[in-house]
Amino acid sequence: MVLFSKFSQSLVSIGIFIFIIGLIALLFPVAFGEATIIILGILFFIGGVLRLSFAIFSFSTGTMALKYLASILMIIAGIWLISNPDIGLNILTVFMAVYFIADGISSVSYSFTMIPVSGGSYLLAEGIISIILGILIWAHWPASGKFALSVYVGIKLLFNGLALVMTGKLLKKPPM
Prior knowledge:
Elements: H1 2-27, H2 29-57, H3 64-83, H4 85-114, H5 120-140, H6 148-170
């Protein structure tokens, strides 16, 4: 019973956090998008450096060249994303369109398993919105690449956060 209540509270807390991030994305779409790309570039760079250090200290000779190549590509990709956030944002926009559609389909199908427990209707709505946003991104690319991704990610995060909050509140009382 206590574990169920803690899980419910965690869902609500995570939902509120995701909702706030979505709100920031909507209020500052270009800055949010470019900051996201720069953070992604930093993560690629750090990941590449860590992989390279691991490759240097590993004694495997069979895949050594591939380890070095993958590490160097990650470092180059990180530097490129950090120095070209606007182009990176356009490229990421295409990937996000595909992700939104796939995630929407997944949420819609999962929502039907949640209907007996409650909360399925919120997941269904979130999934449908995700599919619509993915189609809209795809239809208006590349003209919308600079701001659309952040706006649509913001909308998706708002609804995702809201779905988590509402599901967490519905799950507050365990089924009898």
